[in-house]
Structures are given as C-alpha cells and as structure tokens.
Design a protein that fits this description.
Shape of chain A: elongated
Distance between the termini of chain A: 47 Å
Radius of gyration of chain B: 29 Å
Oligomer: heterotrimer
Helix content of chain A: 40-55%
Protein name (chain C): Phosphatidylinositol N-acetylglucosaminyltransferase subunit H conserved domain-containing protein
Chains: A alpha/beta, B mainly alpha, C alpha+beta
Largest interface: A-B, 26 and 29 residues
GO cellular component, one term (chain C): glycosylphosphatidylinositol-N-acetylglucosaminyltransferase (GPI-GnT) complex
Strand content of chain B: under 5%
Number of helices of chain A: 14
Strand content of chain A: 5-15%
Number of helices of chain B: 11
Family (chain C): Belongs to the PIGH family.
Helix content of chain B: 55-70%
Order of helices and strands of chain B: HHEHHHHHHHHEH
GO biological process, one term (chain C): GPI anchor biosynthetic process
Order of helices and strands of chain A: EEEHEHEEEEHHHHHHHHEEHHEEHH
InterPro entries (chain C): PIG-H, PIGH-H_dom
Chain lengths: ~550, ~325, ~180
C-alpha cells in the first residue's frame, strides 16, 4: 500500500514543530491539520489535544514531526527522533524540507521495528515492500470547531493552521439570526390565518375552485403561500438539499418582490396607468373589428375555398352576433377599467410574478371571445370528425367492436345504411366549411395561448430559478462540489509524489438541474405530436396544466 | 413430365417441391437397407429434407372443380347485365330530370306504382320472411326513408353548390363504378353495404345538381328503388321463379338500352354491345379458360411468408 | 519520461499520445487531437458569408451582414468552448483513483475523479459505431451495495476515439498500476 499524507497548504512554510492530525483507519492515510511550533511542553500539548478532542469529537493525535530548515537550527535530527518516544504511536512521521527544494522528504518510523521504513530518497517503490508516499496538498476550509482561535489570539501553544480572514459582519449575522425566530413565528401565524381563510367553506365551493384553478394569479398565490410556509418554518433545515431549497426560495422571493416594487415605481409615475387604460379599450375594440372583418372574409369565398354557402352564412352570423355582444360588453366595462387597473397594479408589490400572472389573466379575459369561437369551432369540428369516422366505417360495412377494440364487419339494415350514407354525404360536403372556421379560430387561439405560455414560462422561471445556488456557485465555487480533482504538483526525482487536491465545482447546468424549485413546468408535458393530434381531432388545447396531472 | 406442368403455376410451392426432389436426387447412394418412412418420431439415417420417390404419388390436380356449361353461365351473367342496365336507366332518368323533361311528381307517382307492384309481387312469390320483419316494420322503414329524404332534400340541394360540376360528375361516375364492381352478384338479397352506399352517395351527388328540392327528393327515392329494393325483388324472383328470372333480366336490360337510346343513340349502341359481350362472350371465355385450369394439391404446405414489417417502421 | 508517438483515431486522423510517468504508481496519458484546421474555419465562414451576401443582395438590408459576422463569431466561440475537445487526459494514481479530464479548445476543462474503491477494472471493449465495430477503453464501476456486480461503465477518450494499438498501450500501463495495489 501507498501511504497518503494529506497536508494543508497553509502549513507549507510553517516553522518546525509537531504535526497534529488523525489517521484514517483502514485507509493507510494521515490527515495533517495543524503544526505546533517549538518551544512547547509535551504535557501542555497532550492536554490541549484532549481538550480539543472533547470539544470537537474528532480523534486527534500527534502524527510526527515537521522540520523546516532555517539558519542556526541544524542538528535537530536526534531531537526529532527522541520526540517519537514522548508521543507514543504506531507510526511516527518525520517530514522535512530542505533548503532551496520544493519537495518534502518523509521518513516513517515504526514503533515496533524502530527502523525507518521508507526514506525520502528511496521511497520510489524499489525498496522491498513496494511502498511509497504521496503528499496530497489540500486547502483547509471552515475548520471552525477544531481551531476557534484567531490569528492574533495568544494561547499557551503556537500553532499554524488555516485562519479565516476575520469574521466580517458577524454581529449583523448574529442579530439577524436572533431576529429571525420571532419573525418566522409571526409569519407562520399569518400564514396559518391565510390558509384558514383559504380553506373556508365559501372558497371551496366547486365553481369558485374551478375558477381559481384556472386563474394564474390564484395559482401563483398558492405557490407563494407554499413557498413562504417552507421558508418560515422555525425548524432548522436538516440536510443540505433542504437548506438550499429554503435559501433559493428566500432569495428568489426577495428578488421577485424587488422587481415588483421596481415595476410599481415605474407604473405609478407620470399617469401611466390611465394612459394604459386609455389604450387598452381601443385595442380590444380594434381586435373585435379585425375579427369582424375576418368573419366577413370567411363568409365570402376565402382563398378560393369551396364552402357551403348556407352553413357558411349561419356560422358567420352566429360569430358576428357574438362579437357584437363582446363589443357592447367592453363598452360597458370601459369606465371602470382605469380604477380596476390601478388596483390590480398594486398586486405587483407582492412580486413581479404576480404582476405577470395578473397580466396573463387580463389577456385571458380580454380574449374571451376568441376562446369562445375556438371552443365552438373545435366542438363542431370534433363532432364532424367523429361522425365521419364512424359513418365511414358504416359506409364500408364495418363497425367498431368496443369489447375487442377493433373494427369488425357487420351487416346493417337497409334503413340504417340509407340514413348513414345520407348523413355521411352531408357531413363530408360540409366538412371543409367547418374545418376552415376551426382552422382560423385555432390559429387565433394559438396566438393567445403562445402569449400566455410565454408569460407563464417567465413566471415559472422566476419561481423556480435557483438564484442562491447560482450565486454560491459564482462566488464560492467550493461550496457546491461535484467531487475533487488532482493535479501533479512537482516531480523531482527521488522525492515523493506531490499532488494538489482541489474542489471540482458543480457545472452550472447541474446546479440548475439539482437546485431548481419544482413547479408544474418541471413535469413532462404533452409532446408536439400529441399536440398536433389533439389539434387535428379537435380536442381543446389549454395553456395551463391540469392540476390532477401533478404527480410526485 | 410433371415438372413441365408446374412451370409458372405457383412459384412458392414449385420451389418447395424442387428442393425436396433435389434432396431426393442428390442422395442416390443412401443406404437403402432401412426403408424411409414419413414419420417424425423415429430417428432415420436420412437428411431432414429427404423424401423418396413415392412423394409425388400423392399429387392431385384440380380437386373439386365444377365443369361449367354454357347456357347456365349465360343465365347467371344476365344478373350483371341487368345491373349495368339499372345504372344506365337511373342515369337516363336523371338526365330527363336535369333537362326538365320529366317532372318530379310524375317520377314520384311512377316510383310509388312500381314500389307497390314490386311489393305485391314480392309477397306473392312467398318465401322465407326475415325474422321480426312484419308488414308494419316494412311500412315503418318506408316512412323513415321518405321522411328523412324529404327532410334532408333542401340540405342536399345546397350541398354541392360550390363544387364544380366536373368534380361532381367524376365523383358520381367513380361511385357508380364502385357500386358495379362491389355488387354481391352471388347473393344480392341484402345488398352489400359498400355497393349500396357507393350507389347512394353517387346518386345523392347527382341529385344535388337538380334544380329543385322536390327533384332531389324524387331522385333519391328513385335511387333507393333502383339500387336497394330492386335487387331484393330480383333475388326473390331467381329463387322462387327460376323460369321468370331470365325474362325479367332481359326486360330490364332492354329497358335500359331503350331508355338510353331515347337520349343518345350512340351510348345505347355501346351499352348494347357491352351487354352482348358480357352475356355471350364472357361465358365463352370462361369455358375456354377453364380447360387450362391446373391446380395441384399434395402432402405439403405452401410456404407463406409472414414477415412482420412493423418493426422496420419504428 | 514523456514519449510522443503517432497514432491514428478511428477515422484515420493523426492523434498524439503522450505518456508521462510521474512515479511508479502515478501515470498520466494525454491524447491530443489535431488543432482546428484553418481550412474548415475558412470554409464555414465563407459559406455563411456567401449566404448572408446573397440575402443582402436580395433584401438590401445591411443588418444581414452584421448578423452574419455576429453569427460566425458566436458560432466559433461556442464551437471552441463546447464542442472542440483539444486533448483528453487520463491520470491514474495507484491506491487513490483515476482522474479523467477533457480540455476544450478554449481552455475550459471538465474533470471527473473516480475513487479506486469504486473501480472494478479497466478494460477494452467493442462497440458498434455507425456501420462499423470500434474498440474503446472503459472503466468498470462497482455497484456499492454488491461489489461483484457492475453498476456502470465510463468510456474513456470519447472524443478522440483512438485505435486499438493506442488503447492497448494505455491499457497495459493502467493494468500495471492496478496490479500493484
């Protein structure tokens, strides 16, 4: 086996002394944690070690000696060897540096054999037991429980180990910690009040629930409640994942609110709300006008299609009447729109996501006529497609066997055949008209859905983006480690191998993947093929996810 | 001698026999001490594909072939001829309506008369009634036909307005041809679904070009009579009065030719020629070809290739 | 210590294998692919610019030209940062583990370290690649719950895909070190 010695980089240039650390049982490796400098009293060192051991529950021991040659300090060899008798262990390491060389040399003294096992010069594997030594240099980080003393503290012993560059803003952190507990309690109480309000009988009536599950503002509200419940729970985060989740939610919530306040400060200045309201009504009017023109065009001979005149006229008039209703509704609403917008804009102080959700809902409400047209068209088209497909089977003298899930042949009566064929002919010749109406309204609907989908996507992005983890990855890459990586430091012939162990930080992609806050959009969606099939058959397409499909 | 007869008959079975015979031929020096037996449960000193010379003794040819005679075949061919004539007669009627030379009311009256006469004849001929079909049910069916056709005729009228005439003609011709091709000549009593549906589709297409809703109604009713009810009556006639059947078929054929002649003599001549060829020449051709029939049967299974191609699609 | 030898990859292109002996139980193998050829860059750039110029000729919109320049630059950056792998390194340290790293032409490096206790063996395997059979070197990983079974396979030199003679050389050195511990 090869002996592995993990050596902290901060002790590279330390003065001579004793190596403190611990052996990893069964792995043939030693971890050096600190160096105790001369002069010291062995009894003091032992007491200090046992004290540290009690505090930190890490098994500490004196591993060996460390000698850093300096002018006027020659002839320490025998002294160092004698030290091993004072601190009795199974193995005693003698590390030393030489003047002007980068590598260390290492001698291992066995307590039982009393003989140096591998000397630095020939520990290259060619001595009998094939052993060797690898120095692995590592960066010490955050060994607070072990060595709480700062650089300038004066203790009974002089030590070299990793020291933080001071604890900046620690008072603020402490204060925040103290303050966070009552704040969390208050927040929890408020949230429980809110959830109680939400779970009251009145809000759980089926129509209210249906509407609230379709309005993206309500969905966003429930998200935020859930998030705040997670954050404000007074229990400590148990694992890393839970801590990161809390921190991510916390940071993204703050960013969200900050963006929302920014939006408010922009929106409520210079009378922008009323200007917006003044443009909104004409825009809705304009859309209705455009739709009217589109319908007029469809009622003629659009793009040279051969439409059934009678059906065309019926459908066109029906839709025109609908638009007429819509326009009068808008005009009825127009005096209230400005104040409505003003109050809705206040939502943004809950966060940008709320503002976006409200926008999405407004768009949904203002394009309700398009949705209606789409539903009528799709239902009609769907009916026709289903009718045609079953009548086509009748036309061929077949029928669908429900029990066996296949098409069987069947002998029909004369009157069934006659009526079926009559209906088939009629449906077939009316299909292009319906299909054209369906196509046009589906395209319109898709535009609206696309817009809403974009808004939902951005809301979801803000909700689920792991801002804290990203920041941590950017500023403290070693905190999010994927593993370690090694680099060969120096190879001088005759010296043990020196490796540098570094933290291999997580890739940004995996940070995003691991620390993402789960939302509906994380779950698999319909594929494009399924969407196209739905569109072809005439099933309704919605921008929102059905709540029942949320698993996990 | 046999090998020459197999040429080009059935490539798959020929292949199999070829390989089997080759197995027999290629092993002339096989140990003949143990006679070969056609069993699988014994281990025999022969290769798997071995057969001996008795193999072809079990070859049989033209099993269960009925020899046709000329006049019965002509009689049966009359069915095809009269169906062709039916289509011609229907087209003639439509043409008269289209030209305005025939009033829908007249057609309806004639249709009613024909239907009553036919129904009377159908009942008079007797024969097994379909289960559950009472007179009331027949009346109900007739009422449904009439009501639906009458109700839908305004819709049907506007159906093909925007479609160009050529398309409608092409579609109707295609559908009537499909009717003729898929008509179940062997068992015409419940008219086959596809043939009847094709005929009705074609006639609805044609009827929708007529000038008025009543015209459409009359035409669709007429189509129902010609394509749905007449085959039933004819089948009953063939079953119960085999003597009367050829006369009825000949009458209808002549009626079709005569009707067409009143509108386009050229077409009538063509139709007559076609009918003559169908009735007289085609049976001759059949008899002549039957002499060349050579079907082999034997103690082998024909190779069938069941290739599951669906895995290539994935 | 280091010896350079000419090898070819599965497509017949020249690659270089550098084998560095840090100590008796630590070796480093570097397979470097040839640099991005200027001819290819020229070809792609020219084709993009030609298309852009044709579009510019038709539409007379100068935004197309600046767009083309932008596209070429961004494409080249993305290519050297995410696609083009300059060299792949296998560092095997006896009793410690194996480190696989690949560095991109831009200098970006992605590294994975596999502990020795997880490694079952290093073998040369065959695979069907497009229409031919190729050899590749791979690390077999143990299943932590059941050390006798394989949990997964980590292929090495995935982008350079050296031929068998090169793989055998690496394989023999690796086996020497694995046998020591």
């Amino acid at each position: 086996m090869v002996l592995k010695i993990f050596f902290p980089r901060c002790c590279n240039m330390a003065d001579s002394g004793l190596l403190i650390g611990h052996w990893l049982p069964g792995q043939d490796s030693a971890v050096v944690l600190a160096v105790v400098h001369y002069p010291f009293i062995p009894g003091q060192v032992k007491r200090y070690l046992s004290q540290l051991q009690n505090e930190s529950r890490v098994e500490l021991a004196v591993l060996g000696s460390w000698s850093m040659p300096k002018e006027g300090q020659e002839g320490m060899e025998s002294f160092l060897r004698d030290l091993s008798t004072i601190f009795p262990r199974g193995r005693w390491l003698q590390l030393s540096r030489e003047m002007g060389k980068r590598g260390f040399t290492c001698q291992v003294v066995h307590r039982d054999g009393e003989l140096p096992r591998g000397e630095g010069e020939n520990c290259k594997g060619d001595n009998g037991d094939g052993g060797g030594v690898i120095f692995i240099h590592y960066d010490q980080r955050k060994s607070q429980p072990l060595f709480l003393t700062d650089k300038y503290d004066d203790g009974p012993l002089k030590l070299t180990h990793w020291q933080s560059e001071g604890r900046e803003a620690s008072i603020i952190v402490e204060l925040a910690k103290q303050a966070s507990v009552p704040l969390c309690l208050l927040l929890t109480w408020l949230l429980s009040l809110w959830t109680w309000l939400c779970s009251s009988r009145l809000l759980n009536l089926p129509p209210v629930r249906l509407v609230s599950s379709k309005l993206s503002t309500c969905v966003q509200l429930s998200y935020r409640t859930e998030h705040l419940q997670t954050v404000s729970s007074p229990k400590r985060a148990l694992g890393h994942a839970e801590f990161m989740r809390k921190a991510n939610i916390f940071v993204s919530f703050f960013v969200d609110v900050a963006l929302g306040l920014l939006l408010i400060s922009w929106l409520y200045r210079e009378n922008r709300i009323s200007r917006l309201a003044n443009t909104l009504v004409p825009v809705a009017d304009r859309v209705a006008k455009e739709l009217q023109e589109l319908l007029q065009w469809l009622m003629g001979a659009p793009a040279g299609f051969k439409m059934n005149r009678a059906l065309d006229e019926v459908l066109g008039r029906f839709f025109l009447y609908h638009i007429h209703l819509w326009i009068s509704y808008i005009h009825l609403m127009s005096p209230f729109i400005e104040s409505l917008l003003w109050y809705m804009g206040l939502c943004a102080c809950l966060g940008l996501t709320f503002a976006l959700s409200v926008l999405s809902d407004i768009v949904a409400l203002l394009t309700f006529h398009i949705y209606c047209f789409y539903v009528y068209g799709a239902r009609l088209y769907c009916l026709k497609i289903y009718g045609l497909s079953s009548l086509w089977r009748l036309f061929r003298g077949k029928k669908w066997n429900v029990l066996r899930q296949r098409v069987d042949s069947c002998s029909y009566d004369l009157d069934q055949l006659f009526i079926g064929t009559l209906l088939f002919t009629i449906l077939l010749f009316l299909l292009p008209t319906t299909a054209l109406y369906y196509l046009v309204f589906t395209l319109l609907r898709l535009v609206v859905v696309l817009f809403q989908g974009l808004i939902h996507l951005s809301v979801d992005f803000i909700n689920s983006f792991p801002l804290f983890a990203m920041g941590l990855r950017l500023c403290r890459p070693y905190r999010l480690a994927e593993g370690v990586k090694f680099r060969v430091l120096c190879e001088e012939p005759g010296k043990p191998l020196h490796l540098l162990m570094e933290i291999n930080p997580l890739q940004y992609g995996s940070v995003l993947q691991w620390y993402r806050t789960p939302t509906y959009n994380c779950y698999p969606k319909d594929s494009w093929a399924a969407l196209c099939k739905k569109l072809f058959v005439g099933e309704l397409v919605y921008p929102w996810r059905q709540k029942g499909t949320k698993t996990d | 001698m046999f090998r020459r007869d197999w040429t080009g008959r059935n490539p798959v079975s020929k292949c199999i026999i070829g390989s089997l015979v080759m197995g027999a031929d290629s092993d002339p020096g096989a140990p003949s001490a143990v006679p070969w037996r056609k069993v699988l449960y014994e281990r025999q000193p022969f290769p798997d594909n071995y057969v001996d010379r008795r193999f072809l003794e079990e070859l049989r040819r033209n099993v269960g072939v009925r020899r046709y005679r000329y006049w019965p075949v002509v009689r049966e061919a009359g069915l095809v001829t009269q169906q062709l004539s039916c289509v011609a007669a229907f087209l003639t009627l439509w043409w008269y309506m289209y030209q305005g030379q025939l009033y829908p009311f007249t057609l309806l009256l004639a249709g009613l008369l024909c239907a009553l006469l036919g129904y009377g004849l159908y009942e008079a001929l007797g024969g097994p009634r379909t289960e559950g079909r009472t007179r009331l049910a027949d009346l109900q069916s007739a009422a449904i036909f009439l009501a639906f056709t009458f109700g839908f005729s305004p819709v049907l009228k506007t159906l093909t307005e925007s479609v160009s005439t050529d398309t409608v003609y092409a579609m109707s011709a295609l559908m009537l041809l499909a009717h003729l091709v898929t008509f179940p000549y062997a068992q015409p009593s419940p008219p086959g679904s596809l043939s009847l549906n094709a005929a009705l589709f074609g006639s609805v297409c044609l009827a929708s070009r007529l000038p008025g809703a009543l015209h459409t109604f009359a035409m669709v009713t007429c189509a129902l009579l010609v394509f749905a009810l007449w085959p039933c009556l004819l089948h009953r006639l063939r079953d119960r009065a085999p003597r009367g059947f050829p006369w009825a078929a000949a009458l209808v054929s002549l009626g079709g030719i005569g009707g067409l002649a009143s509108q386009s003599p050229g077409g009538a001549v063509l139709l007559a020629l076609a009918q003559l060829a169908l009735t007289l020449l085609c049976p001759l051709l059949l008899l002549w070809l039957q002499e060349h029939k050579d079907n082999i049967h034997g103690p082998w299974d024909e190779a069938e290739i069941h290739e599951d191609l669906s895995r290539f699609l994935q | 210590m280091a010896d350079d030898e000419k090898f070819t990859d599965i497509n017949g292109k020249v690659i270089f294998l550098a084998c560095q002996n840090h100590s008796s139980f630590c070796r480093e193998f570097t397979v470097s692919a040839p640099k991005v050829s200027l001819r290819h860059i020229m070809m792609y750039t020219c084709s993009v610019w030609l298309v852009a110029y044709i579009v510019f000729f038709l539409t007379e919109n100068t935004a197309v030209l600046s767009g083309a320049i932008f596209v070429t630059l961004v494409g080249m950056l993305l290519h050297i940062h995410f696609v083009k792998i300059d060299h792949e390194t296998l560092l095997i340290i006896g009793s410690l583990g194996v480190q696989v790293s690949s560095s991109y032409a831009s200098g970006r490096e992605s590294t994975t370290f596999i502990e020795m206790s997880k490694i079952k063996d290093i073998v040369i395997n065959e695979a069907i690649y497009m229409q031919r059979v190729i050899y590749y070197l791979c690390i077999l990983l143990k299943d932590p719950s059941d050390p006798d079974t394989l949990s997964s396979v980590v292929p090495l030199f995935q982008s350079s895909k050296p031929r068998l003679n090169c793989l055998v050389k690496v394989y023999q050195s690796c086996q020497e070190i694995l046998a020591q511990c």
